Amino acid sequence: MHVIDQRSWDAVDFVMHLHELGVRRGAEIGVLQGDMSSKMTRVIPDLHMILVDPWLHVEGYNDVTNASQLVQDCRHNLVKALMPQHTVIRKTSVEAAKEVEDGSLDFVYIDADHTLEAVLRDIEAWHPKLKPDGILAGHDFSTRHLMVVQAVCDTAIKWDRSLIIYQQDDIWRMV
Ligand SMILES: C[S@@+](CC[C@H](N)C(=O)[O-])C[C@H]1O[C@@H](n2cnc3c(N)ncnc32)[C@H](O)[C@@H]1O
To answer: What is the CATH architecture assignment of 3-174?
Structure first.
């Protein structure tokens, strides 16, 4: 596995690269309040996104994104209102994947549950949704999320693929 570590590249570079690669249909797995998908929508004309998130409060799960159910409902409403042109699926990653045709997406951006098992599960569920040259990418390739790093590296080694790391914003992209 070859890692191309781009220290100065950030999320804007990533979105610009997606634009340069001509993407038209993509999915974001783990949307929160839509910051990343809003960025993509502003930069890439005619983009259609599938936005997947259960927006569900999980009792006892200690994470900043795990807000009350009221806040989760607000996030869901905000995303629908901000980006009415996209398809919002309020389900977990694996359940949502069953609703998406195989080979139909130009890219998938994974940023949901950051445990090892979950990232591997998300990759397994969403990789088949990509077109042959489709782009698999995601967030939190960093020392704060070592399970994400492990899942992504294990997959890259298994598939004999390389990784580009947009280090300023911890984004990974398989190439
Ligand atoms: C780090 S936030 C996403 C941030 C967003 N990608 C952005 O850049 O603004 C993680 C999100 O993943 C969602 N999530 C957690 N488990 C999930 C699952 N199994 N499937 C889909 N989304 C999940 C959470 O509800 C939360 O909104």
So the answer is: 3-Layer(aba) Sandwich (3.40)
